[in-house]
Amino acid sequence: MKIKRDFSTEKTSLLLFHFTLLPFFAFVLGCGNNGLGDYSSEKDRAESIVATEALAESFQEAFAAGFTAEEFDALLTQHVAEHPVIFGAAIAFVEPDSSGGSVSSCPYVDREEGKLKWVDLNTPEYDVPSQEWFYAPLRSRQAMWSEYEVYEKYPMYTYSIPIVIDDEVVAVVTSDLLANGN
């Protein structure tokens, strides 16, 4: 007796694993929990990881193409607009030859009262280089989730990815998820 295999089901199962479970396992194995179990859903976290990785890739290409500040801002705004689970996103530009300790600018786009808002986080009050979402991936050169923090009145977690060009971290790109789905 010959067994007939249903490849359409196997493809569906493989795709389901790739797009649903693989990001989850990558998150658990690669980033640890960092206390993230108390907010959003696994699906939201997986979506934010995939979206932020795509944004980091776009920024890497933008660096190579010599984009202007306005073009970087447009990519950031588009990223937040296209991904409703993401509350906000930033790119912190590292000053060249600063040993990673200085930031030249840090545009941030978030959602407030149904509208997208742009601000530069690079202020003495906010002190970008002291923020975990910036310094931890800068030093480790690995993507990571930050610990819980409150920005303005919004409790959130931040997924950060360092952008490395010619073996130097030139920026850190982030996406924020609100805690408890707020």
3D architecture notes:
By secondary structure, the protein is α+β, with helices and mostly antiparallel strands. The chain contains four helices and eight strands; from the N terminus they run αααββββαββββ. It has helices at about 5-30, 40-65, 70-80, 130-140, and strands at about 90-95, 105, 105-110, 115-120, 145, 150, 155-165, 170-180. Strands 1, 2, 3, 4, 5, 6, 7 and 8 form an eight-stranded antiparallel β-sheet that branches. Helix 1 packs across helix 2 (about 40-65) and helix 2 (about 40-65) runs antiparallel to helix 3. The longest helix is centred in the N-terminal third of the chain and has 25 residues, at about 5-30. It is globular and about 40 Å long. Residues about 1-40 have low confidence and may be disordered.
Question: What is the average of the pLDDT values?
Answer: 79
**Helical amount among residues, as a percent range?**
25-40%
Global shape = globular
**Element-by-element helix/strand order:** HHHEEEEHEEEE
> Beta-strand percentage?
25-35%
Count of helical segments?
4
Model regions low in confidence, pLDDT < 50 over at least 5 residues: 1-39
Radius of gyration (Å) = 18 Å
Total strands = 8
Largest sheet: 8 strands, antiparallel
